[in-house]
């Protein structure tokens, strides 16, 4: 899924860094998991991973990409879905063929459903909005009827959220929609199988909790990987539609407001995206962590000052174990890492900070 701070492209840099610094172990924690790209990599790399995030969509992704360790069997759908030996493909085919039925997404996030209001909320075409509604409703019925276990449910929910993101009429975040239909938005919604990591035998855990609670309560871990928000954009406001799809609207219909249909609740506002609070949050988290290695991704334009990051990590780390690595790349094309190197112009710089704890 398109996501601010998604580390998909930086996995090779993270892997090289683990090797270069000789970081090894059996357990890892990724408490700012987002799309679960790094948690998924860490599981593949050999760790039993504990992951978390405050976002509900992320909880679904963590289950699909990290916790689930065997291809889902969908035994509870044996009568409803014809099996050709590939259960997941068969269930996705069934969902992809559902008749569009208008509902919550249609009413709030497509121009036809939202007609007569000041803003047309042109996020999805009417067909795709109604299709998201019918798939989401079916998942809810299966889930509440006991036909799906946790892993099966979150794999299908992840497939739906990713499918919706591919046809969303946005430039990547949901804080605005594009005024005219873009080509991707006019394609039909299609659920595809998430790329799960199965057969590892590693027990992984997913949470929807504040990072500080997770690192303080669920350790010890060999490796703590931190990837907090680095700017003042609150994720809950930029990804409210994936979040609504993840949480559903069946028990209580959320009240949506304004041009983009934001829910009213403020509870997901993060200290890590507030200038006055992020430094203290960082120190609290590092001091609370029960782990051997701390590796942190942070963008060179992040709101926590670099000297603060260095001093907090040095305070917590063994003498001379602090490192800062940079990876610079032209957009879409990676080139190379170095210890301390500054790039300007069209280059993007991502940093990894490391310390071995005492
Ligand atoms: C830079 S993104 C992580 C990206 C992730 N590594 C990936 O590859 O997709 C930061 C994440 O931190 C989450 N977040 C913000 N505040 C948090 C908090 N207090 N506790 C846990 N997660 C939080 C956001 O929801 C967001 O998903």
TrEMBL record:
Q: What is its EC number?
A: 2.1.1.72
In terms of PROSITE patterns, this protein maps to: N6_MTASE (PS00092)
One GO molecular-function entry: nucleic acid binding
Q: Which domain of life is it from?
A: Bacteria
Q: Has the keyword ATP-binding been applied to this entry?
A: no
Query: Keywords of this protein's UniProt record, alphabetized?
Result: Methyltransferase, S-adenosyl-L-methionine, Transferase
| GO biological process terms held by the UniProt record | DNA restriction-modification system; methylation
Q: Offer one Pfam family short name for this entry.
A: MethyltransfD12
Its UniProt entry gives the catalysed reaction(s) as: a 2'-deoxyadenosine in DNA + S-adenosyl-L-methionine = an N(6)-methyl-2'-deoxyadenosine in DNA + S-adenosyl-L-homocysteine + H(+)
Put simply, this protein is called site-specific DNA-methyltransferase (adenine-specific)
Query: What is the protein's species of origin?
Result: Candidatus Kutchimonas denitrificans
């Amino acid at each position: 899924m398109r996501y601010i701070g998604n580390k998909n492209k930086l996995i090779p840099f993270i892997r090289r860094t683990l090797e270069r610094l000789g970081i090894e172990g059996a357990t890892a924690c990724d408490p700012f998991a987002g799309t679960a790209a790094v948690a998924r990599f860490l599981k593949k790399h050999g760790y039993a991973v504990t992951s978390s995030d405050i976002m509900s969509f992320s909880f679904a992704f963590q289950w699909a990409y990290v916790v689930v360790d065997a291809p889902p069997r969908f035994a509870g759908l044996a009568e409803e879905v014809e099996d050709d030996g590939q259960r997941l493909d068969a269930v996705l085919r069934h969902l992809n063929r559902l008749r569009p039925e208008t509902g919550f997404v249609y009413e709030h996030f497509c121009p036809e459903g939202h007609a007569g209001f000041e803003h047309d909320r042109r996020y999805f075409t009417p067909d795709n909005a109604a299709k998201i509604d019918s798939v989401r409703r079916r998942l809810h019925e299966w889930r509440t009827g006991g036909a799906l276990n946790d892993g099966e449910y979150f794999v299908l929910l992840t497939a739906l959220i990713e499918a919706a993101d591919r046809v969303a009429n946005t430039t990547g975040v949901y804080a605005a929609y594009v005024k005219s239909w873009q080509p991707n938005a006019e394609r039909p919604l299609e659920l595809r199988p998430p790329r799960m990591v199965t057969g590892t035998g590693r027990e992984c855990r997913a949470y929807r909790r504040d990072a500080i609670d997770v690192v303080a309560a669920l350790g010890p871990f060999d490796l703590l990987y931190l990837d907090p928000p680095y700017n003042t954009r609150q994720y809950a406001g930029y990804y409210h539609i994936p979040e609504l799809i993840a949480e559903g609207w069946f028990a209580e219909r959320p009240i949506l407001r304004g041009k983009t249909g934001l829910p009213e609740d403020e509870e997901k506002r993060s200290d890590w995206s507030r200038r006055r609070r992020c430094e203290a949050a960082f120190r609290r988290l590092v001091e609370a962590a029960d782990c051997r290695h701390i590796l942190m991704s942070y963008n060179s334009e992040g709101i926590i000052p670099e000297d603060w990051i260095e001093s907090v990590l040095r305070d917590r780390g063994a003498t001379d174990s602090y490192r800062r690595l940079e990876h610079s790349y032209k957009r879409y094309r990676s080139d190379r890492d170095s210890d301390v190197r500054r790039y300007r112009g069209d280059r993007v710089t991502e940093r990894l900070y490391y310390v071995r704890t005492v």
